[in-house]
User: Fold this.
Amino acid sequence: MFPWHSNRSSHTANRLAGETSPYLLQHAANPVAWFPWGEEALTLARTQNKPILLSIGYSACHWCHVMAHESFEDAAVAAVMNELFINIKVDREERPDLDQIYQSAHQMLTGRHGGWPLTMFLTPDGVPFFGGTYFPREARYGLPGFVGLCRQVADAWQTRRSDIAAQNDELRRALSQQSAPATSLAQLDESPIATLRAILLGSFDRDDGGFGGAPKFPHPTDLAFLLRRRNDPQAHEAALFTLTRMQAGGIHDQLGGGFCRYSVDERWEIPHFEKMLYDNGPLLSLYADAWAQTGAEAYRHTAAGMVTWLAREMTSPGGGFYSSLDADSEGEEGRFYVWERKEIEHLLTPEESALAGRHWGLAQAPNFESRHWHLKIAAPLVDGEIALIESARAKLFAAREKRIRPGLDDKVLTAWNALMIEGLAHAARTFERPDWLVAARGALDYLRQTHWKNNRLLATSRNGRAQLPAYLDDYAYLLAALLELLQAEFHVEDLAFALQLADALLEHFEDTQTGGFFFTAHDHEALIQRPKTGHDGAMASGNGTAAIALQRLGHLLGEVRYLDAARRTLEAFWPQLTRQPGGCATLLGALEEALIPPTIVILRGPLAELPAWQRRLTHYRSVITLALPNGLGGLPPSLTKPETPHVNAWVCQGVNCLTPLANLAELERVVQAD
Assistant:
């Protein structure tokens, strides 16, 4: 694509010691003269006319650790880096804006998807001219050695400046075209929805669930898209089968609960062992919905295990949720989780050991390296075996807790917390678990107290110190979480906060010329690109989530501003949705609700009678239900319904509303008919 591309100072103090990111702090003692991203480093690069070596990673990343141990902790390698470059280290979880930009640039430069660690070489004005991911210290795996590569890149900077300048011009044009606006108003229809359904079912793995082959990721946005299809048994079967196979696999921690980021094989058996908060929030919602549709106890058990893990290992004293657990412990990936058979035989009774061997696959050949087992469900339990397997589970878990633990990234990210708050709130009302709702509210209280300053969100905090301007995802996910919390338990203060977030979204992120929302705020620092994307990644699209949340809030309150902003978002991305809807499940969820608005049910009546009505409506995912007890004040006009001695229900879809219903069975018939 580009006209030129090839494979190829004195030491200053490392500037990372004052950062809050655990990932950056891991590198604070490196001999590399790392800077955090900021004006000091960028100015120095311009002043000295030196290229920038930008390294992006995160604390739970296995190959980030490998490259750090091989190269960044090595004094000789560091000397070369310090001589030739201004070195900048970035935590991709704190700066997803930079990660998005430079991952896109990497793909354009190399024709390959990126990953972490991302290693990019930039001109002093921040434009990349060469990049890759992991590079070994010495040449191997078909990759060049890092030191030699650094020297080749520095030589190219000195001798091929005109080629680099020409490539940079083309790269800038390519990046600017990624957010090309729609050329005209769109006539929205259902065609992209049908296309995405066909794409997903066409790539569905009928043997093991999920989509495509190894490595296999959960893709919760795609599973949610299939699970919410009405009167579509084939779509439901694909989603439920995937959730079943995932919960039986090693991607699901069979002892401690929660899910790892992805499976390295197509069977969900051996994961990449890092556990990320952002995966587990949406998966918690999905397992709640799977249980609501089927009543299968395994889904309830999986959801409960996720929340137990969250409370035990991922909740800060202030109520916020930590970010991730490392893949490695004692320098080895998976060491904390895997077993030798003799360990298990020593810990369990013969009866427990025999059952564990059959149930968790220990009677089969080792599945992790040469002599270790990673637990999976290899055979179902039969009647009378649950107590025995739970006894074995407790013993193995207690023994595992004595091992050296994987590292914890204890920063609190707004967006990731919002995903978990939404998942907890939804699961709490589905399973009728008020204690889970307390945990969700605790995290929300932490964010409001620590991350909400001067009517703006901050993106991250650690030990109560919040920093960095928040991004689109932070606002959109938190708005969606508040709408879920309002359905679980209505509080006027939550509605007021939702309105503040919605207004901030429009004021600071909306593209008022062509529609949709930029990833960074209007007053964010100027970078080489301002991303505006509709694709889902590991997390849902911020534009798709914003459109859904604004539509729902607009329908609840009769607020046209929010509905219009959501419509403009869909129109902005309509060419993309019609051309290639794959990877756009969240935006298509917004499209579905634009074409057929969700049913809204407002319940009003005595506080003691409302829960029974709420319980009967919980399982209807397409219905938004607010329960407003008598005596509740401060409501907006659209929610101010007359107080009645018994519960009445007001049902609306879009601008069409029925007369109030006082009979619960009649309400259910109406909801089922929609």
